[in-house]
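Deviation from plan, reported transparently: zinc ion complex.
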Amino acid sequence: MRAWVATYFFLLFFCLRTPGLGLTIQIDYRYDVTGFFDHPDARAAIEAAARRWSRIINQPLAAVDVGDDEDDRRFVLRHPGTGKLIEVSSASGVESDALVEAGASPADEYWGGIQIPADTFIVFVGSRDLDSLGLAGPLGGGTNFEEVFEEVDGLLNRGFNVLPEFGNLTVIGGFASFDSDGEFEWHFNHLTTPEQGTVDFYSIALHELGHCFGLGATGVVEWEGLIEGDQYLGANALSAYRQDHESNLESLPVQGMVENRFDYHWKDGAIDSIIFPLGQPNYLSTVGRGGVQEVLMSATAYFAPGVPRHEVTNIDVGALKDLGWSVLEVDPPQEPPIELQILRDVSGEFILKFSSQLGKNYRIQTSLDSHQWNDVTPSILGKNEITTWLSGDPNFIDPNGLGAYKKAGFFRVVKD
Ligand SMILES: [Zn+2]
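Because the crystal trials were delayed, the predicted structure below was used instead.
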């Protein structure tokens, strides 16, 4: 009989709640049983948050393509809509599950194969009634044969930072749940300023996705290994702190014991950092370029007055490096802006015309100063023809505030 081990490198985190091409973070809605993401602005915001991280992380990950075979690999997720732990198996069913034959319990779902493209990280999202604003974590290793945990390029490790013992950071993907009990009002639109009294969904989505990579995560040995007592010692996050503050601090505080459990978030209210400037942050409604905000991965999102949105900071990105993720070191050369014809109609609205290529993605951006650019629409798919875009379209929202684009008049189109 072959040996198998059940290991749930898992955890929960309560919170409030391309050089390379970058990592593709694929948001998967199959477990959104409550229909939270039927709201198009919620969907657009979490995808914008995923694109933000994908421009920061450029870690290669091996492709996964496993079927029903003698290893029948599994992973574990916490169902974002129900909170139940679910084991997913690559076998076609319990009858052909080699782990069951070896004495393990049946899996909860049989997918008959698990395929994930190279450099792609899947995040299952959904919503339920939570005590916090969000809850997220990496997918866990589940019940598997020992050799599956040891596969360097396999489902669990994908060539990432493999340690000799079990307990590597699993890099299949993550899960993220968002609160739906109506205790507070979400502000979903990431291209507008959150109204007072609402909670900015883009900020919370960035935070929860951070947990999916292992940041602030309970049960992730790489993260726990960076902490002694209630102090974080990772060299890259510390170096980021020293640069942001011209300080010689030796460690960074985490929450520590809170109500009988260890909370691995950064300590509330204790650490400020500058927004990570590479990879096109969404500066709208934040402290802006060069300003300091509380680190993204602190336990509670205390938004400063007049600053209703948080972004990823230098310290959060340093911590990603401490975990072994490869991150953006310099902004990749951007494709030159697309040649544009800009017209105005009688009401002062802008008409942009540019030639697009079939299958390529184009983003319209606007700016107040021609230096900081913000996306103004979901991306546009090219069609091998002249594409026309109108600022007067009823779906257009000015990310710089009502009507600001008319005064500034800066537009550009970038191809992804
Ligand atoms: Zn959290």
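The mean pLDDT is 88. We consider this an acceptable substitute for the interim report.
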